[in-house]
TrEMBL record:
Protein name per its UniProtKB record: Alkyl hydroperoxide reductase subunit C/ Thiol specific antioxidant domain-containing protein
Pfam families named in the record: AhpC-TSA_2 (PF13911)
InterPro entries: PXL2A/B/C, Thioredoxin-like_sf
Amino acid sequence: MFSKLTTKIALRKAGLPSNTLSNFSITNLDNGDQKSINPKSGNSNATWGDTFSNMTSEVNVPKSWKSWGNPPPAIVEVAPAPIVGTKAPNTARLILPMGDGKACVLVFLRCCGCAFAEKTFIELRRLANKHQNLHFIAISHNSKEATDKWVQQVGGAWSVQVVVDEDREIYANWGLGVSTTWHLLNPWTEIARQKLGKQEGNWGREVDPSGNRWVVGGSWATDEMGTIKWGAASKSADEIPDLVEACKSVGVS
């Protein structure tokens, strides 16, 4: 039941009728060949990302569709997500603490273009401008070009440090891998998306092919010694972290 429901939600998000896959084929824009799709065949354990990747392989599709396919694996194995009281994971691109005696609030974006990521980034920027005694970091797995473009679209970085992690090494070290279908396409996430769009005019933006909707986001706060004081991986795609609480966890309110 959940598989059918999430597929319908995904098709609706892509602007397609809910019965699209019942008799569906895609035309290759290069050679005119058609590829038929039968959702009842193949691997019954496949995720919606698997299905979408299979149905669009060897076919030219609109650029905005490509973010729905399965992302490539991170270059390192996904570790357990850090918990409160443990030391922050370190990589060559992100070392905590930074050695200047400042605590840090960091957000891993689901993808540049996600409405929930946009709302989270704007709140992160607001707090960064308010609390100059903390580091505020946003990590993106989109390409640098796509990340820079999105940051400008949402009003600029200001006091937020933006780190590009296109191979998702930092994501993996912080326990952030690829989500389940339910994580992204459950009905409550769709309700939250509609609410955010109607009440705040935030419907998200086109997701560049360098980003992927299936990547899990998360947010943490670390003290001046690099110890995790708050945070976790996102439980669903629509989760908006309470970054005010993140600041309070390191003694700033």
